[in-house]
Write a structure and sequence with these properties.
about 240 residues; Carbamate kinase; about 35% helix; about 20% strand; nine-stranded mixed β-sheet; nucleotide-binding; alpha/beta; ATP-binding
């Protein structure tokens, strides 16, 4: 029996990771695949919290560029993350994993409001907790949400699962064949070199709270379990 390297993790999923090959919306097969991978990790005894983006449905930044009020556009993005979270919850519970969705914007008919102590209690009971609706405030990304929630629940690591990207590169590997992959970085190096892994607010939160970040591809099944078991895949970013 394999042993997990981490006791409590935050899994950060981009909205695009749920859209599969179609590139937009929610793909049921992709949801099923991610749910199965999360189940593998949960069965190791790891406490799993998840933060999901909403870019497969709506991006607040795009709405703002179209002339919308930025706050309104961001709130629409938060609602998109709730849709993704409910879809993922359904996928997990279909395969027998107890899951709770907690939202930063109250909608009690749909999910629990975010309460830190209650979230930790769910995790201790080995339930998967999905944090939806970002921080509940406009102008903050779901990357920042992942960093904030990881600090609040004292997670040991943030696992950033990317769609069709297996780590952090010197340049976009899709357009530059000479782009080289980093095995490890510090947050300062990431910020100084302008690598678009996560925004500066999220990076600063992780750096200040000494939370490591591992960037890897979710496209290959079993990768979440490999990372949790300590296999060196993707790129690891640390405070020092």
């Amino acid at each position: 029996m394999t042993t997990a390297r981490y006791r409590r993790i935050v899994l950060k999923l981009s909205g695009e990771a749920l859209s599969g090959e179609q590139g937009y919306g929610i793909d049921p097969k992709t949801i099923q695949s991610i749910a199965e991978q999360v189940k593998e990790v949960a069965e190791l005894g790891v406490e799993v919290a998840i933060v999901v983006g909403g870019g497969n449905i709506w991006r607040g930044k795009v709405g703002s560029e179209m002339g919308m009020d930025r706050a309104s556009a961001d709130y629409m993005g938060m609602l998109a993350t709730i849709m993704n979270s409910l879809a993922l919850q359904d996928g997990l519970e279909t395969i027998g994993i107890q899951t709770r969705v907690q939202t930063s914007i109250e909608m009690r008919q749909v999910a629990e409001p975010y309460i830190r102590r209650k979230a930790i209690r769910h995790l201790e009971k080995k339930r998967v907790v999905i944090f939806a609706a970002g921080t509940g405030n406009p102008y903050f990304s779901t990357d920042t949400t992942a960093a904030l929630r990881a600090a609040e629940i004292e997670a040991e690591v943030i696992l950033m699962a990317k769609n069709n990207v297996d780590g952090v590169y010197t340049d976009d590997p899709k357009t530059n064949k000479d782009a080289k992959k980093y095995e490890s970085l510090t947050y300062l190096e990431m910020l100084n070199e302008g690598l678009g892994v996560m925004d500066s607010t999220a990076s600063s939160l992780c750096m200040d709270n000494d939370i490591p970040l591992i960037v890897f591809s979710i496209t290959e099944e079993g990768n979440i379990k490999r990372v949790v078991e300590g296999e060196m895949i993707g790129t690891t970013i640390r405070g020092k």
